Amino acid sequence: MIKEFKAFIMKGNVMDLAVGIIIGAAFTAIVNSLVGDLINPIIGLILGGINFSDMFIDLSGTSPASLAAAKEAGAAVFAYGAFITAVINFVIIAFVVFMLIKAMNKAMPKKAEVPAAPAGPTELDVLKDILAAVKK
Predict the structure, then answer these.
(1) pLDDT of 98 higher than 80
(2) Is the pTM of this model over 0.70?
(3) I need a labelling partner for 105 at 20 to 30 A (CA). Which of 15, 96, 112, 134 fits?
(4) CATH code reported for the domain at 2-111
């Protein structure tokens, strides 16, 4: 059983997956930093410094001063601003990843085009051949 496990772990696709996960985690940190440290401040400047993450509705009736104070007090809140922030971050991250992948695809060498295989007879041609054979 240990030999089988060792053979499984040493397969190329398992190692490729492990490397992909590690690279993906590092790439996530880079993209999150790009979005959080560079893009979001620009968007905040454009929107006049609005911080969506602090927007909430107090459901407990205690009227806390901020979302952090409400969470610390254990008050029931509807933190719709955190959701808006998450949606905005998702859209920005998706766009950044799209642009990075587009740039990577452009930078990669193009594959040589393989000539298309000659097309075989169509279904209609085969049916005509069968009909001609039946008529004989």
Answers:
(1) yes
(2) no
(3) 15
(4) 1.10.1200
